Amino acid sequence: MRKTILITGGAGFIGSHVVRLFVNKYPDYLIVNLDALTYAGNLGNLIDIADAPNYTFVKGDITDERFTADLFRSFSIDGVIHLAAESHVDRSISDPLAFIRTNVFGTANLLNAAKEAWKGDMAEKRFYHISTDEVYGALAFDGTFFTENRKYDPHSPYSASKASSDHFVRAYHDTFGLPVVISNCSNNYGANQFPEKLIPLAIHNIKNNISIPIYGKGENVRDWLWVNDHARAIDVIFHSGNNGETYNIGGNNEWTNIDLIRALCRIMDKKLSREIGTSAQLITFVKDRAGHDLRYAIDSSKLQRELGWEPSLQFEEGLEKTVDWYLDNQNWLENIINGDYQKYYEKQYKER
Ligand code: NAD
Ligand code: DAU
Questions:
Q1: 216 CB under 6 A from ligand 2?
Q2: Which domains can be identified in the chain, with CATH numbers?
Q3: Could you report the per-residue pLDDT of 44-96, keeping only the tens digit for each?
């Protein structure tokens, strides 16, 4: 094996796509997937590569100082792609401290473990921190976009914790010379997203004739990117991005929540052979999210210009692919609803 890459949060939504891409594309890398298997971690996302010779899973918590130090020692890690986080804004409103623990302390702890393990020889090493556009705050309906130079202005405990972690990453670069790179991405959609997030929640509810909760008037705008395109961007930035730099990643694909859900309802009507308009009757406007950011929109021209990445998929096509995946993999959703997904670890690893 030429390199050992630690991917944190690899059992989650985006992390599992990144792990699969790296395991399949780089047979000469050893991919170590470190995940605490919180409610959001699901080894069922990675069944297809679980036995690959260049892949190994380690159950552990990024906030555990001794554990992370030992991990760096025992695996001789060359690069980190750090995705492990508490990721759901609504949960950050009900339990903010969990976000500070994992996203702030956990990231600082990993940075520290990398600094200690790599001191004296940081050449060829890289710590890549995966962040979010939410650190930039909210845009008005004025046609502006988030660039990498935008002032940080987070509003939720989630985005504040991610902003803080970004600052620690830069501080470790500036103070200790740690070779870091950061990317800030817009909303992802696709297979394996936990059904607390808008799109999989709506697909599940439509399928089961349950009301679809739309916060406020549904006028908030998000910039949606297919998760596989995010994983491709992560590959490009990890290998070709410059140390100390930030890259914004986005789909150039803004939708109000209500328009998005109406489009999804139309696709679902067709797929479920329902009369067009049937699923839209499930739309229910509910109390708005506290501190709900109005609009996110990413300017990813730096990444496109400097590293040659661009999104591969039109949204309508991606949304249809996504619906097909959830309808074809109803067991995956059912296992989450009934809690069985948390037994994959026992089944696959504990007895090895
Ligand atoms: P997710 O919630 O689906 O997955 C997070 C993973 O991290 C889970 O597998 C969980 O078990 C693991 N984890 C949580 N706490 C841990 C801990 N203390 N130690 C080890 N593992 C832990 O999240 P996601 O949507 O895949 O997001 C992944 C990363 O990408 C996050 O850092 C998030 O901030 C960022 N991001 C997400 C989006 C998006 O649209 N989902 C967009 C931009 C950036
Ligand atoms: O922008 C990137 C961020 O996108 C990531 O950093 C986060 O980890 C990820 O969760 C996502 O955050 P959002 O809050 O934008 O995603 P969510 O799917 O929770 O909500 C999308 C929009 O839909 C948002 O405006 C809130 C709204 N919404 C959400 C849910 C769950 C509803 O109207 N109803 C709902 O039930």
A1: no
A2: 3-192+225-253+296-313 (3.40.50.720)
A3: 999 999 999 999 999 999 999 999 999 999 999 999 999 999 999 999 999 99
* CA nearest ligand 1 atom 44, residue: 132
Burial (CB count <10 Å: 0-12, 13-18, 19+), residue 195: middle
pLDDT higher than 80, residue 222: yes
pLDDT of residue 352: 57
For 230-245, what is each residue's pLDDT tens digit?
Answer: 999 999 999 999 999 9
Separation of CA 113 and ligand 1 centre (Å): 20
